[in-house]
Backbone:
C-alpha cells in the first residue's frame, strides 16, 4: 500500500501526517513521489501504529510506489536464485 493511500485513508494532509510522525513534511512529499523511502525509528513506527489503529503485523511491508515494490521483489527473487 503506498504511503499516500495510507495517509489519505486517515484524511490527513502531508503536513498533518508529517507532524504526527515527527518527520519533515518534505520527507512525506518525497516518499509519496517515489524520490526517497520512508525510514522510521521504532518510536515513529509505534506512532504510525497508533495513528492508523493497526498492529505492526497489519501495516504494509512497503509504503513506496507499487512499481518500486515490483523492482524490489525482482531483486529479492534474483538474490534467492543466486543462493
Residues:
Amino acid at each position: 500500500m503506498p504511503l499516500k493511500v495510507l495517509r489519505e485513508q486517515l484524511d490527513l494532509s502531508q503536513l498533518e501526517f508529517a507532524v504526527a510522525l515527527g518527520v519533515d513534511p518534505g520527507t512525506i512529499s518525497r516518499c509519496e513521489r517515489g524520490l526517497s523511502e520512508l525510514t522510521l525509528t521504532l518510536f515513529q513506527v509505534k506512532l504510525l501504529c497508533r495513528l492508523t489503529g493497526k498492529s505492526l503485523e497489519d501495516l504494509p511491508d512497503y509504503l513506496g510506489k507499487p512499481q518500486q515494490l515490483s523492482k524490489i521483489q525482482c531483486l529479492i527473487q534474483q538474490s534467492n536464485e543466486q543462493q
Remarks:
- Helices lie at 3-9, 14-21, 25-32, 42-52, 66-82.
- DSSP finds five helices and no strands in the chain.
